[in-house]
Design goal:
Elements lengths: L1 H8 L2 E5 L3 H17 L5 E6 L47 H6 L1 H9 L12 H18 L2 E6 L3 E4 L4 E4 L4 E3 L2 E4 L10 H13 L2 E3 L17 E5 L3 H10 L6 E3 L6 E3 L6 E6 L26 H6 L7 H24 L8 H9 L6 H10 L9 H5 L10 H19 L6 H21 L5 H20 L4 H12 L3 E6 L2 E5 L2 E6 L2 E7 L1 E4 L13 H8 L8 E2 L5 E3 L10 E3 L5 E7 L21 H17 L2 H12 L1
Parallel strand pairs: 1-2, 1-7, 2-3, 7-21, 8-17, 9-12, 9-17, 12-13
Antiparallel strand pairs: 4-5, 5-6, 10-11, 14-15, 15-16, 18-19, 20-21
Helix pairs in contact: 2-5, 2-18, 9-14, 13-16, 14-15
């Protein structure tokens, strides 16, 4: 007992979750330790049922056919000269540099083809990169690092982390970096499952596609799929190429050769169109810049207290996006404009994108409709359209996808890249507004976490262009059919029936797949640790209701600006920190940071790491003194 007690008197930090967020935070702890920790060693424990580094999403054990939706050159775990933080910059290789250097031998040994800097690599490449980064970070830490390949199931009031095996770790500080959480089915999903089972149908609820059992989807049968984002792309791959089909690159267009094991997928969604393809080009010097209209100063000028998203924030967001689009158009492609940028900017500065004065300025200064930016049109490209038959609709959608592929590959439309970068900057401002309590719970859930995040994902987090080329090839092969926007699904006797108001008729199928991640709702999370901490009030995530009494679910965990957990009584827990996509206002949760882009996740990680070290430093000298006395 005395030996265990001595070990646990050393400053001890426990990370629950061993994925990229934990790796990034540990890198910042290593970088700042010399300044803030001194000579005192610390103990670090990382608890995760999946190997540290990649965690669940970026584990090695997954299909080689699943890709990242970022180019190799757009991913890094390390800070660089662009990052504005208080701690020291410790450069390291981004993914592309690693692939061409230290990673080349690792990938060859793993039998993974080496991707180029402009390729969208298999997720297994990122898994190997994160494993390598993990090893490097552990070597740099002034700590003994212990990993536990199991779940944490309880955190006691005296900061003991209890694992599923019964092991207990006495912690001074605990960081929950849990990533995406499994959750209990909603009432609607439970009802769907019950009705489908009673009718002998197959219903697959929302979930992480790589972990979903698709074995009940039979060759040649019709399957209704609702969801046209990343989850659908993964589903498409796992039900086609992973079942033995193959693509032929020869000829004028991509051709898919079925294996005969594929089901027929009828895919639709609210928009009825796939996410925009990732941009296939870069423009030197183009990167996120500080916002011009949606700023903290501007929000503070609107008064104290809670702001209204629709009337106070959305106009500034629209103005920010319009500014980014038109500034790039006027400065990089002035031959397609009729006014000077300064004249046009004067109008934008004093108006809003939907104001008659600005609309008139756009019509006068930007002659081509394709060069104009209207957020609502970008967000809902099929809004209000009705098609006389399925053939006409599917032909129209195929042409939309082809046009999108051409545009997203053409730097002549670099205004799209400027909008992408503006969305990143807007997200940073909204994260601060959330953590400072400037938004109501209803606006946070409905407007930011649902509508704005959906628009962001649609525009900025789409698939690699090749995936949309494959989608079109599968459509030509009759494997993928388009079901339309605002797709509604019901059960009629012994079949699922799908209908879209944009197209007459219906689709009947034995199987229905909800191809999307579940909406975050930590009150419905299945994780036993979170459920216990929410139940005893250590964590807070109120059940939220709209003004009309409609339930909004449980939303996200609450944390303050230092990422400390906010308890149910509103107080701040001094030794429990929260990071990741299940935490309100957590920066950098939408994806990996890009090199030389001053990623908000880096800035937040550095601030949290410095705070953690500041809290640990006073504990270390006493520990060293006690250990010397004991010896």
């Amino acid at each position: 007992m005395s030996q265990v007690s001595t070990i646990h008197r050393r400053p001890t930090v426990v990370f629950v979750g061993g994925g990229p967020r934990t790796v990034g935070l540990l890198e910042r702890i290593a970088a700042n330790a010399d300044e803030l920790l001194g000579d005192g060693p610390i103990d670090v424990h990382v608890v995760d049922p999946f190997p540290a580094g990649g965690g669940r999403i970026w584990r090695r054990e997954q299909s080689r056919l699943l890709w990242m939706n970022s180019m190799t050159s757009d991913v890094t775990i390390f800070t660089d000269e662009s990052v504005q933080c208080e701690g020291p910059i410790r450069p390291g290789p981004d993914l592309a540099t690693w692939v061409a250097g230290a990673g080349a031998t690792i990938l060859e040994r793993a039998g993974i083809q080496q991707p180029g800097p402009m390729d969208f690599p298999p997720r297994l490449v990122q898994a190997e990169y994160l494993s390598w980064v993990w090893d490097r970070v552990v070597q740099d830490l002034p700590a003994t690092v212990t990993t536990h390949l199991e779940r944490a199931v309880e955190l006691t009031p005296d900061q003991r982390v209890i694992l599923a095996s019964g092991v207990e770790i006495q912690a001074d500080l605990v960081i929950l970096a849990l990533g995406y959480l499994d959750r209990l089915p909603t009432a609607s999903e439970t009802a769907w499952a019950g009705q489908a089972a009673a009718a002998g149908l197959t219903y697959i609820p929302p979930g992480y596609t790589a972990d979903v059992d698709l074995g009940d989807l039979q060759p040649g049968e019709h399957v209704i799929v609702r969801g046209f984002g990343q989850a659908f792309i993964d589903l498409m791959v796992l039900l086609t190429e992973a079942r033995g089909g193959w693509y032929d690159d020869h000829g004028a267009q991509l051709t898919y050769h079925p294996s005969g094991a594929e089901p027929i997928l009828y895919v639709g969604s609210r928009r009825g169109v796939p996410y925009h393809a990732k941009l296939g080009y870069t423009v030197a010097g183009t990167k996120p810049v500080p916002t011009r209209y949606l700023t903290k100063v501007a929000l503070d000028s609107l008064g104290d207290g809670v702001l209204d998203f629709d009337t106070q924030l959305q106009p500034l967001i629209d103005k920010e996006l319009a500014f980014a689009h038109y500034q790039q158009l006027f400065t990089a492609h002035s031959d397609r404009t009729r006014w000077s940028w300064s004249r046009f900017l004067e109008v934008l500065d004093r108006s809003l994108p939907d104001a008659p004065e600005f609309v008139a300025a756009v019509e006068a200064a930007v002659p081509e409709v394709l060069d104009r930016f209207v957020r609502s049109a970008v967000d809902r490209p099929l809004q209000g359209q009705v098609f006389e038959d399925w053939f006409t609709f599917e032909q129209h959608l195929a042409e939309l996808i082809e046009d999108d592929l051409r545009r997203r590959a053409d730097p002549e439309h670099s205004a799209d890249l400027a909008v992408f970068n503006a969305l990143l900057s807007i997200y940073s401002v909204l994260s601060v507004a959330i953590t400072e309590g400037r938004l109501s719970d209803e606006d946070r859930v409905r407007q930011v976490e649902t509508e704005f995040h959906g628009f962001f994902s649609f525009v900025a987090s789409g698939p690699p262009p090749r995936r949309l080329e494959e989608l079109l090839a599968l459509h030509r092969a009759g494997i993928v059919r388009f079901a339309g926007p605002d797709l509604e699904v019901a059960i009629d006797n012994d079949r699922f029936v799908g209908r879209s108001p944009a197209v007459g008729g219906s689709i009947r199928a034995r199987a229905f797949v909800e191809a999307r991640l579940p909406r975050p709702d930590v009150l419905a999370a299945t994780d036993p640790l979170l459920r216990g901490l929410l139940a005893d009030g250590t964590l807070a995530a109120d059940e939220l209701f709209a003004a009309d009494g409609t339930s909004l679910g449980g939303g996200l965990l609450k944390a303050d600006v230092l990422c400390r957990a906010v308890r149910a009584d509103g107080s701040v827990h001094p030794g429990l920190f929260l990071l990741g996509p299940s935490v309100s206002g957590s920066a950098g949760s939408s994806g990996f940071s890009r090199p030389h882009f001053n990623g908000p996740g880096f800035r937040q990680n550095d601030a949290v790491a410095r705070n953690l070290l500041t809290l640990l430093a006073p504990l270390a000298p006493a520990v060293r003194k006690e250990e010397r006395h004991a010896s």
